[in-house]
Design a protein that fits this description.
Blueprint lengths: L1 E4 L8 H9 L2 E7 L5 E8 L1 H15 L10 E4 L3 H15 L5 E4 L2 H7 L4 E4 L8
Parallel strand pairs: 4-5
Antiparallel strand pairs: 1-2, 1-6, 2-3, 4-6
Length: 126
């Protein structure tokens, strides 16, 4: 499963982007089975976005051992990545969580302050 949030999203109307940025709306996205980005929810604020990623992992990985398969990627928001890692370690007890900085190519598409979470889950969204 791949869930992530972005600082801003360029596929919305300009007026919606301005308002969304002002009130710190963070879209939570998933890559579907065909490789398209699909918004699944919106939250307000960075803390709620990190919590939303964690909550999705709890929901979608119930009963699955992810002790070797959790990856967090960030685009210049290492503090958020470390917060998410700590939540996962405390809840699941996993110790092999890998944190990486996004590559320049991916970073150019998502922009700064994107946080992504990768793990094995169930019920991939179609």
């Amino acid at each position: 499963m791949q869930y992530f949030f972005v600082f801003f999203l360029v596929i919305v109307k300009k007026s919606a982007a301005i308002v969304g940025t002002a009130i710190q709306v963070k879209p939570i996205l998933i890559t579907d089975t065909e490789g398209y980005l699909v918004p699944i929810s919106k939250v307000i604020g960075r803390k709620m976005a990190v919590k939303a990623l964690f909550d999705k992992m709890c929901e979608k990985s119930e009963g699955i051992d992810n002790s070797e398969f959790v990856y967090i990627e960030h685009a210049d928001c290492e503090a958020d990545a470390l917060t998410l890692k700590q939540k996962i370690e405390e809840h699941f007890g996993y110790k092999n969580i890998v944190i990486n900085e996004m590559s320049p190519i991916i970073g150019a598409h998502v922009g700064p302050e994107c946080l992504a979470l990768f793990y094995i889950g169930k019920d991939k969204q179609k």
